[in-house]
């Protein structure tokens, strides 16, 4: 059985590896998430983490896998993205936990322990600056607008005709 120090060292090494990802390495708790964590308490938030992992990640084929974890709204959601415990694809890619099989109790506890370790590190990190530039939201990528198709099979010029005097009439 691994000692508590070995487990912490393993979690530290995992977080360092994840921090090398441009996406995961930039994720931080904002003031709202920090406040929620402080008001609610670490243990209650970790109970939420267990519930999220059990309900949204542990099944062999989770509903909406790949998009089941919001990006914000709860400190655990941010932690899940930062620790690659947000979906089965990330669990497989980053932690070698195969998709398509229900998570074992040990795998679920690993996910919660990693989330807890990340949250603890975030609490120790200085709070983000609250200047106007720091509070602006980061723009998200949007899909380009697709041109709307014209009414199926109807030529817009066929709907209206113009009389010689310039007045319009509707063709029936």
Walk me through what this model shows.
- This protein starts with a helix and ends with a strand.
- Helix 1 crosses helix 7 (105-124) and helix 5 packs across helix 7.
- It has nine helices and two strands, in the order H-H-H-H-H-H-H-H-H-E-E.
- A hairpin with a 5-residue loop joins strand 1 (160-162) and strand 2 (168-170).
- It has one domain.
- By secondary structure, it is mainly alpha-helical.
- The protein has a two-stranded antiparallel sheet.
Q: Average the pLDDT over all residues and give the rounded result.
A: 78
**Class per helix and strand makeup:** mainly alpha
- Please tell me how large the radius of gyration is: 25 Å
* Largest β-sheet summary: 2 strands, antiparallel
| Tally of discrete structural domains | 1
- In DSSP terms, counting alpha (H) and pi (I) runs of 4 or more, how many helices? 9
- Global shape: globular
* Strand residues, percent: under 5%
The oligomeric state of the chains shown is single chain
Number of strands: 2
Order of helices and strands: HHHHHHHHHEE
pLDDT < 50 stretches: 131-139, 150-162, 168-172
What is the CA-CA span between the terminal residues?
Answer: 83 Å
Helix content: 40-55%
Strand order of the largest sheet: 1-2
């Amino acid at each position: 059985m691994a000692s508590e120090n070995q487990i912490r060292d393993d979690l530290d090494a995992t977080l360092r590896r994840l921090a090398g990802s441009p996406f995961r390495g930039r994720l931080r708790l904002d003031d709202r998430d920090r406040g929620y964590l402080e008001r609610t308490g670490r243990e209650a938030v970790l109970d939420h983490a267990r519930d999220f992992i059990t309900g949204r990640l542990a099944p062999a084929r989770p509903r909406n896998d790949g998009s089941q974890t919001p990006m914000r709204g709860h400190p655990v959601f941010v932690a899940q993205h930062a620790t690659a415990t947000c979906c089965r694809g990330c669990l497989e890619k980053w932690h070698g936990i195969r998709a398509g099989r229900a998570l074992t109790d040990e795998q679920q506890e690993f996910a919660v322990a990693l989330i807890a370790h990340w949250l603890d590190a975030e609490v120790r990190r200085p709070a983000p600056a609250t200047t106007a530039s720091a509070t602006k939201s980061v723009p998200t990528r949007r899909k380009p607008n697709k041109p709307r198709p014209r009414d199926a099979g109807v030529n817009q010029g066929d709907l209206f005709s113009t009389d010689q005097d310039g007045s319009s009439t509707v063709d029936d």
